[in-house]
Amino acid sequence: MVRSMTECSVVCARTPGCTGYNTENTAATHKQCELSAYADTDVGAAIVTDNNYDFYMKVNSGLCPADFVEFRGNCYYIETLNTKTWQEARDHCISMGADLVSLESPGETDFLVPQLPPSWLTGGNDVAVDTQWVWVATGRQVDMCAPIPWAPGEPNNIGLEIYIEFTSYQRNNVGKFYLLKYVCEKSP
Ligand SMILES: [Ca+2]
Ligand SMILES: [Ca+2]
């Protein structure tokens, strides 16, 4: 089975002891998502043709707690069973030493998306100052365009919508009683 680099990174993150992966598809090797021990000399990517992709990356230091998966040095708890309000979800994250996820790179978003339903809660909010969107874990401003844009017509503030929902690679603001799956993020 051909796996994308993102799928392969997920397989590695969920495999105890995996510290790197190689996604390669050539007639000679037929390697697909080879999990491996990480070596400094292997890091990097070489795309030879559309069908030949060779990549090693350290994705799993083994330092994340049980129930968390690791991606590029951060730990993620991905809730795919239970829905909660934003505050309930945040309380759950904090109880595990984490906070609701800050989406700060396309790679991070691409890593999370295949593991979740189309819609889920992030740490984005404008609770403190209306229309000043920040990530709750860091207080940093949410980039208005990246890594995902607002959905057309959003943020629309129907009622009091103060939390950012990820929905099908776009952003929507939702209210405090809205129930969704969610992602927590922490440093190892
Ligand atoms: Ca993040
Ligand atoms: Ca909205």
TrEMBL record:
For this protein, the record's SUPFAM superfamilies field holds: C-type lectin-like (SSF56436)
Where the record annotates domain Apple, the positions are 1-60
Q: Which residues form the C-type lectin domain?
A: 71-185
Q: Which PANTHER family match?
A: MANNOSE, PHOSPHOLIPASE, LECTIN RECEPTOR RELATED
Q: What's this protein's name?
A: CD209 antigen-like protein A
* Species in which this protein is naturally found: Priapulus caudatus
